[in-house]
Amino acid sequence: MKKFLAVFSGIATVLTVLASLSQGHGPFDNGDGKFLSYTLAQTIARTPKNLNSSTAPKADDQAKPAKTTAQATTNKTTNGTTNAPAKSDARVTVLGYHDFSSTKDATEMLISTAKFRRQMQAIKDLGLNVISLEDFTAWKRGEKTIGDRSVLITIDDGWKSIYTDAFPILKELGFPFTIFLYTNYINGGSNALTTEMIKEMQKHGCSIGSHSISHPYPAAVKSERAKGEAAFKAYLQKEMGQSRKSLQKQFGGDILCYAYPGGFVTGEMLPIAAEQGYECLFTVLPGKTTRSTSNFTIPRYIILGTHDYIFRNATSFKATKTSAATLGAIIQTTPHPVIPEPGSIISTRLPSISVDLSKVENIDADSVVMRVAGFGKVPVQYDPARKIAQWKVSRRLRSRTCEVSVQWRSMGETEYNKPMTWIFLVNREAAYQLK
Ligand SMILES: [Zn+2]
C-alpha cells in the first residue's frame, strides 16, 4: 500500500503549507480547525506532533439536534441545485475513496463494498444533496446554488473496483461522482480502469479530474524540487498540465479539477495549477467546504476502510440559519450480531440490548460483561444454551445516542477480550409519542 504511505508522509508538509495559506482563506477558516486536527490526529497512527487531539470535540459536539431518518426524508431534495444564485450557507462534504472489495479484508485504502453501499444509502436517508463536480465548480464560481448540506463523492487513482464495485451502487442510487485519474494508470493492468470502463461511467454521472501523470510520492517531488526552480517548474507543468490535456483528449470536456497525489502540496504548485487551467484543487485534510474556502486547498474526508468515525464526521453538519443540524451517520460493523444494530434508529426508550455470541468458542458463561452509556455495568443475562447475552434497559434512555460495550473471557483465561462496542440512536420524538 505505497499510496497509503504517500498520503500520510505528505501530511506534515500539507499542514505547513496550509497553515501559511490560511492567513486569509482556507479550510482552517471555516470554524472546523479543531475538528480538522482531531480527525486527522485520529486518522493517522503516526500523529504529527503539532496536533493536539485532547482539545478536540467529539463528533457528538459537532451537531446538536439530530435529524432522524424519517424527518430528513420529508425535506429531502432530489436535485439540490437551482440556477438562481442566492446567498446561502451551503457546505459541502467532499468524500475521498480509493479501492473497494467484497472479498478482500478492509484496509485504510480499501473499503468493503457492503460498507460503501451502507454509506451511500445513509447519505440518501439523511437527505444530503449529492452534487456533481460541475455543480461544485459552478457553485464555487457563484454561478449556481446548491443544497445547504451537499456531498461530493470522489474516488482517486483509477482502480478497476471503481467500475466493478462502486459504480453499480452509485448508478442505482443516481449519485453523480468524480474519479481523479493519474494518466499512467489508465489501462494499466488487471487492477486498473480501462478507457472503455471510464467512458461507460461518464454516461452515468461520472466526472473526471486529474491526479497527475505519474502519481509522484513526496520523496519524488522533493528530489525534483532539489534540481532547482526552473526544473521543478517544468516538472510540475508536465505532471499537472499534460495530465489535464491528455484527459481532455481521451475523455472530452474541460478538466478543471486536480487532486494532489497523496495530498502532497507545495507552494510552487498553486501558480502552476492556475496557469495550467485548474479551478479547484483537492487535499486530503478533512473539513467542510464553503464558498470562501480556498479553491487551491479544498478539504476532503478520506474515508478509510478501517475507521468508521470518519464517515460519521463527514456526514455531520452543524446547524446554520437556514439549515438544521445533522448528526452524522454511524456505519459500524460488529464482529457478532447485536440488537439494536449499530447505527440503527429505535423508537423506544426502553429497548432490549442483546448480543449473539454463538460464534464464540469456549466462552466462560460467567464472564460476560455489558456496559451501557449512562448506566455503567449492567446486570446482563447470559443464556449459555443460546449463547445470547441480553439486558432490558431499566429506565428510559435520555440521550439521542447510546453506546454499548460487551466483553467476555474464554474458559480458563484470565484476560478479557477487547471490548466490542457499538452505538445506536434513539428517536426521542417518536419514543415520546409511543410511550
Ligand atoms: Zn492517489
Brief sketch in words of this structure:
The protein is an alpha/beta fold and 435 residues long. It is 31% helix and 20% strand. It folds into two domains: 2-314, TIM Barrel; 338-434, Immunoglobulin-like.
Attribute tags:
435 residues, alpha/beta, TIM Barrel, Immunoglobulin-like, seven-stranded mixed sheet, 14 helices, elongated
Write the layout of secondary structure elements.
Blueprint: H1 2-9, H2 11-21, H3 33-43, H4 59-62, H5 69-74, E1 81-82, E2 91-97, E3 99-101, E4 110-112, H6 113-125, E5 129-131, H7 133-141, E6 145-146, E7 149-157, H8 161-173, E8 177-181, H9 195-202, E9 206-210, H10 218-225, H11 229-251, E10 257-259, H12 269-275, E11 280-282, E12 288-289, E13 301-302, H13 309-314, E14 338-339, E15 345-346, E16 352-356, E17 369-372, E18 376-378, E19 381-383, E20 388-392, E21 401-407, E22 420-426, H14 428-434
Parallel strand pairs: 2-7, 2-13, 3-4, 5-7, 7-8, 8-9, 10-11, 15-22
Antiparallel strand pairs: 1-6, 2-12, 14-16, 16-20, 17-18, 17-21, 19-20, 21-22
Helix pairs in contact: 6-8
Bound molecules: zinc ion.
